[in-house]
């Protein structure tokens, strides 16, 4: 995929300037990004270099390092409280008791999301939510391009991957799914395809169960019956399923395309987001990359070597559209931070 020449570098394209991708990657992407590091420090952002057309595009994501207070964890989800309750001036949102969930709908643990610095549905918009808005906009643009290509059937699928473990891919996959689910015209199915070490359901506070691998191994299982509907509007989850030593072979079988088609046909508005194993640590990532419309490759700015980025991109080359998310970038104290505009009305 190439970037248009007739426009200035976007904020997303400028993300790569903070991290040295080497000469090969600087010829493909350029610019500046932002994020908190583990120690909470901040660094100056360099001005963007010229953008050159290339296959890989850059996005930027952050993982906040600051601890979340008890008050933040306990904040109620106002979007789930009826307007008539909030209209009462004497009503206390903390005292609202939600009605029981319908049968087959599972509650996502908002407190757990907040405690781990993730997007919380219904919470006020903050820097993290705003930055994932930017990321999903670029992914949605690419989705339209794929839809207009000769691989239109793959336009509704995204693979979230990384080169090595602990680069933040599951963090980014869950936040991307939560952000995408807020779109008015899109319903999201988050698929835990990290079949060796599944972690998506634990991050959401959900119980694990039968899932993708079970449907691949047994053709009598309707994979749609394994999808878990959540209490977050327009978000559902598919577990990884029972572990097996034949996971790569199952994913590489013709059955996988049948299962993916079933999931897409079940809901024409559905977007599949796969959380895959790291590309350099397990083989399923390369197999899944051949089945999706685009790959979001999470790069940890403070430790992912340039050589591993190239190796991972080569393994994922079965997908034409690979985009980079720069994770764990640092700031300097007092420096500008995208998304800080929200909440400024409190200081006006």
Description:
It is a single chain. The protein contains twelve helices and nine strands. The chain has helices spanning 22-26, 70-74, 83-87, 110-115, 127-147, 169-180, 200-204, 212-217, 247-251, 254-265, 284-289, 306-315; strands at residues 57-60, 105-106, 157-162, 187-192, 228-230, 235-238, 270-275, 294-300, 322-327. The chain has a nine-stranded mixed beta sheet, sandwiched between helices. Helix 12 links the parallel strand 8 (294-300) and strand 9 (322-327). The chain starts with 21 loop residues before the first helix and ends in a 21-residue tail after the last strand. Mean pLDDT is 79; it is low at 1-7, 15-57, 62-74 and 344-348.
What sequence of helices (H) and strands (E) makes up the elements?
A: HEHHEHHEHEHHEEHHEHEHE
What amount of the residues lies in strands?
5-15%
Secondary-structure content class: alpha/beta
Helix residue percentage:
25-40%
Spatial ordering of strands, largest sheet = 1-9-8-3-7-4-6-5-2
Number of β-strand runs: 9
List unreliable stretches of 5+ residues: 1-7, 15-57, 62-74, 344-348
N- to C-terminal separation? 43 Å
Overall residue-averaged pLDDT value:
79
Q: Count the helices. How many?
A: 12
What characterizes the major β-sheet?
9 strands, mixed
């Amino acid at each position: 995929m190439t970037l248009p020449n007739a426009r200035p570098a976007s904020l997303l394209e400028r993300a790569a300037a903070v991290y040295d991708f080497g000469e090969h990657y600087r010829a493909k992407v350029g610019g500046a990004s932002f994020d908190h590091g583990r120690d909470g420090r901040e660094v100056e952002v360099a001005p963007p270099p010229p953008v050159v057309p290339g296959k890989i595009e850059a996005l930027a994501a952050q993982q906040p390092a600051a601890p979340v207070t008890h008050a933040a964890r306990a904040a109620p989800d106002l979007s789930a409280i009826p307007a008539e309750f909030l209209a009462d001036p004497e009503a206390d949102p903390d005292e609202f008791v939600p009605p029981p969930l319908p049968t087959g709908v599972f509650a996502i643990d908002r407190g757990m999301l907040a405690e781990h610095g993730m997007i919380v549905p219904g919470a006020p918009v903050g820097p993290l939510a705003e930055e994932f808005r930017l990321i999903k906009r670029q992914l949605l643009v690419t989705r339209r391009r794929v839809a207009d290509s000769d691989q239109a059937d793959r336009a509704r699928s995204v693979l979230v991957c990384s080169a090595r473990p602990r680069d933040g891919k599951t963090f980014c996959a869950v936040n991307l799914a939560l952000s995408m689910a807020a779109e008015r015209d899109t319903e999201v199915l988050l698929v835990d395809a990290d079949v060796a070490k599944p972690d998506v359901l634990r991050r959401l506070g959900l119980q694990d169960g039968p899932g993708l691998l079970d449907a691949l191994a047994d053709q009598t299982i309707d994979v749609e019956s394994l999808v878990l509907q959540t209490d977050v509007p327009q978000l559902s989850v598919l577990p990884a399923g029972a572990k097996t030593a034949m996971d790569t072979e199952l994913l590489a079988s013709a059955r996988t395309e049948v299962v993916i088609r079933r999931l897409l046909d079940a809901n024409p508005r559905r977007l599949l987001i796969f959380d895959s194993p790291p590309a350099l640590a397990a083989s399923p990532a390369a197999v899944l990359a051949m089945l999706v419309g685009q790959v979001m490759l999470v790069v940890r700015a403070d430790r992912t070597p340039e050589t591993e980025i190239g190796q991972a991109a080569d393994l994922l080359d079965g997908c034409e559209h690979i985009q980079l998310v720069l994770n764990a970038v640092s700031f300097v104290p007092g420096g500008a931070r995208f998304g800080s505009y929200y909440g400024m009305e409190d200081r006006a």
